[in-house]
Specification:
There is one protein chain. The protein is α+β, with helices and mostly antiparallel strands. The longest helix has 13 residues.
């Protein structure tokens, strides 16, 4: 497969509003409500950082989804059309504890970016899993 560079400016500056509830839904499978709420609030206030698509997949230990996955296909089309993708919401892993990074929202976007160019700089809002007592 031939890889092409993602067009410049192919990323939005801020996540879309629906990304936060999607991330919260996923994180609610991993943590309690107070932790999820605090983590989502941290995402809302975090600055974006940039990481290579290949490094995000490696840190999360998630498999690369194929290009025929419907959501990856949709994101690849957006990239080809020059439409901006939403930044990824990522919970930082902890190597000392053996915890992988968690892609709370944006797994398909990371995979589409990888298929475009594994060295694509992907904007992420990266936070630690926030802890707050209920």
């Amino acid at each position: 497969m031939t890889k092409t560079k993602a067009p410049a400016g192919a990323w939005q500056k801020t996540p879309e509003a629906h990304d936060y509830p999607t991330a919260a839904s996923y994180l609610s499978l991993l943590a309690g409500e107070a932790t999820v709420t605090a983590t989502i609030e941290a995402f809302e206030h975090a600055e974006s950082a940039h990481f290579k698509a290949k490094d995000i997949l490696r840190a999360s230990r998630l498999a690369l989804l194929p290009t025929d996955n419907p959501h990856v296909t949709s994101d690849l089309k957006k990239i080809a059309d020059g439409k901006a993708l939403s930044p990824v919401l990522l919970v930082r892993g902890d190597a000392a504890s053996g915890l992988d990074a968690i892609i709370a929202d944006g797994y398909h976007r990371v995979c589409a970016s990888y298929h475009t160019d594994e060295n694509t700089d992907v904007p992420v809002r990266i936070v630690d899993l926030a802890h707050r007592s209920a």
